[in-house]
């Protein structure tokens, strides 16, 4: 799958999750921003395939970075932000695996 398609798929899945979870007008912009930070790194780190352990480590790192960025910007309930990051990334990861 080309990078641009993978990014579009990720944004199509994750942005609505963040918008619903964060509940403020410009949540979509923050959702796009955190993905523009994490997605290129994940793409590069997983290029050419990876063991299941390495794959899980990279995905976990993406979740944690997105959570950290959300918390740094919003300073809101960490449980809601963490749950949103886990749900958004789990759904986009699953979609990517199904389409790979």
Describe the model:
This protein has 100 residues and is an all-alpha fold. It has one domain (3-99). Helix content is 85%, strand content 0%. The chain has four helices and no strands. α1 (3-22) runs antiparallel to α2, α2 runs antiparallel to α3 (52-74) and α3 (52-74) packs antiparallel against α4. The mean pLDDT is 94. The chain crosses the membrane at residues 41-73, 80-99. Keywords: Membrane, Transmembrane, Transmembrane helix.
N-to-C terminal Cα separation, in Å?
7 Å
Structural class: mainly alpha
N-to-C order of helices and strands = HHHH
Q: State the share of residues found in helices, binned by percent.
A: over 70%
Mean pLDDT: 94
User: How many strand segments?
Assistant: 0
The number of helices is 4
Shape: globular
Total separate domains: 1
Instruction: Point out poorly predicted stretches.
Output: none
Main sheet characteristics: none
Strand residue percentage: under 5%
Rg on CA atoms, Å: 13 Å
Keywords: Membrane, Transmembrane, Transmembrane helix
Transmembrane segments: 41-73, 80-99
What brief labels describe this structure?
about 100 residues
């Amino acid at each position: 799958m080309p990078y641009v398609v993978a990014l579009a798929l990720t944004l199509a899945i994750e942005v609505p999750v963040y918008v619903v979870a964060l509940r403020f007008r410009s949540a979509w912009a923050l959702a796009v921003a955190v993905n523009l930070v994490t997605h290129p790194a994940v793409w590069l780190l997983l290029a050419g395939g990876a063991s299941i352990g390495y794959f899980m480590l990279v995905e976990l790192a993406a979740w944690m970075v997105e959570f950290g960025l959300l918390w740094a910007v919003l300073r809101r309930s960490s449980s809601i932000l963490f749950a949103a990051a886990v749900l958004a990334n789990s759904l986009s990861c699953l979609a990517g695996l199904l389409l790979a």
